Amino acid sequence: MFFDDRTAFTPRLGARMTYGVTRVLDALQARPVAPPAAVSEQQGGMTVLDRMARTQHPACLPEKDRRTIEVRGQFANKKAIVFAEASQPNLDMRIWLEDIYDLSLVNVYDRTGFFEWLLKCGKDADLFIIDADSFASDRSLMLKFCEAIRQKFHSRPLILLNREAERNEFVQTCKDGADVVLQSPTSRTAVWLGVKAAMDHHYH
Fold first, then answer.
1. Burial class (CB in 10 A: 0-12, 13-18, 19+), 134
2. CA angle 22–27–29, rounded 5-degree value
3. Domain extent at residue 120
4. C-alpha to C-alpha distance for 116 and 88, rounded to whole angstroms
5. Phi-psi bin for 178: left (phi > 0), alpha (psi -120 to 50), beta?
């Protein structure tokens, strides 16, 4: 239910809401639990039950994942470099990275300066994120840039944002040289799980 300035929240209304929530919870508890479904390609390799467990279980909260990565020492500089043109989806992603993982970000917007900024700031980055759309359909240049990151910073995770991706790829497949591929525009949950998966791939 949505409340705005014109909605009066009264004790009677609160009681009705509490009663309604209780009815919903009772109904959910009474429903039989279906066995885990097959992996759904539309959910980035995760079933609905997987995603519910991931977001509801205390051991799988974003704060827990952030602390785990920090304890490992993988966020030594707490910095990520994002090679992506300016757009609202990319701005949202920056906000989520800062909020979930407390990372400071260097955002390089102009692809003509990608290689220069990689050499200038790459050594201080704990994570690299590349938006495939920023290469204006020049796939060969994108692959060359990914390869440059791999050669110079092979121990650092690389996430690729791709509008043409059919689903999120959290399993390391080295597709296009990336540890994780996220369908663009992405979501807060995908950013959270994608960063954790990419860091896991590089923890030995």
1. buried
2. 95
3. 41-201
4. 25
5. beta
Among 156, 152, 173, 108, which residue's Cα sits nearest to residue 134? Answer: 108
- Asked whether the beta carbons of 45 and 168 are under 8 A apart, the reply is yes
Question: How many domains does the chain contain in total?
Answer: 1
The DSSP letter of residue 169 is B
Q: Is position 104 within any domain?
A: yes
Q: What is the block-wise mean pLDDT of the chain (204 residues), using blocks of 10 residues?
A: 38 41 42 40 43 52 93 95 92 94 93 91 95 88 92 93 91 77 94 95 86
Q: What is the pTM of this model?
A: 0.70
Spatial neighbors of 48 by CB under 8 A, at least 6 apart, are 37, 40
SS3 25: helix
Tokens of 34: 């279906």
- CATH number, domain of 67, equals 3.40.50.280
| Residue 4 resides in a domain | no
